[in-house]
Amino acid sequence: MGKELPKKGKKRPAGCITEEEARELQHVWCCTRTPEIDKCIGFEDTREFHWSVEELQQYLKYVKKKSKKQGIDNPGIRMYFGAYPESKCKNKKGYSTIFLAPTGAPAGEMGKGGDSAPNNYGIEPYNHGNSGNPPVIY
Asked: pTM, whole model, 2 decimals?
C-alpha cells in the first residue's frame, strides 16, 4: 500500500502511526511469531534493530546521489529480514537482522517506482545496526 507524501510545511509524515498502534503491532508480532521462531531456533531471537538518525541520513543521501547518477529520480528503500550465519555471530547463534535495499529504475523503464519498484542492485544494501539481547520491547 502506497503512502502519501507530506505536503510542504506539514511536519508529520502521512505514514506516522500512534504509540498505541505501534504497541499493538509489536504485541501481535510477539504473540503470533516469536514463540514459534524462538522454539524453532532454540533461543530468544532479536526482533528490533537500531541505527542513529545520522547513520540513516548518510545512507539515504548516498542512495539519492548514486540513484541520480543512474537516472533514477525517485529511489525507494525496501527492508528485508535476514539471519546471520552462525559462524559470523560472536555467540554462534545466528540472530535475525534486517537490511535496507535501494529500489528504483530510470525514468521510462517498467516498474520505475512505488511498491513494485525493482531492487537496485547497483547500490549496496545497508546493514550492521545494533539490536537488543534480549530484545527491547516497544
From this structure: 0.80
